[in-house]
Hints:
With 155 residues, the chain is mostly beta strands. 5% of the residues lie in helices and 40% in strands.
Amino acid sequence: MFQSYYTNTTLLRKIFLNPGWNWISINLDLMPNTINDALFSLSSPSGATIKSQATFSQFSDIASAWIGDLLTLDASNLYQYNGLYKDSLSVIGNYIDPTLTPIPLDTPWNWIGYLPTQSLKVNDALVSIEASNGDIIRVSCICTISRWCRMDRKS
């Protein structure tokens, strides 16, 4: 589950996290978007891991920082967060217009971030994706953190 709070120029989004794996889609243009800045608001990151489709970082208690190859968070990507404790993440950023933000797709599959700030039908939410004949979109609305999509692209 998430909440969005609106101001004149930026949005504050609060994402509630359960222990274990959570899908996270950050539909804001974060300023700054470095992993340490983006995840700073977590109250209990000890033992946590965040991963994208290709890279990951883990929280180091010794360094009090996220260590790994995942260095930034981007709105067009989807992430998995694995924490030991119930927590919440507050992120601040600028609104992203989903109709003006292309999401690049690779073969064979993609973790696609959910860009809209409200619930939409899948076709409306993913309007900026240029799907090809035979592409499959799998959508899960079961998780409580956010909607997420996995795009299977045929070679």
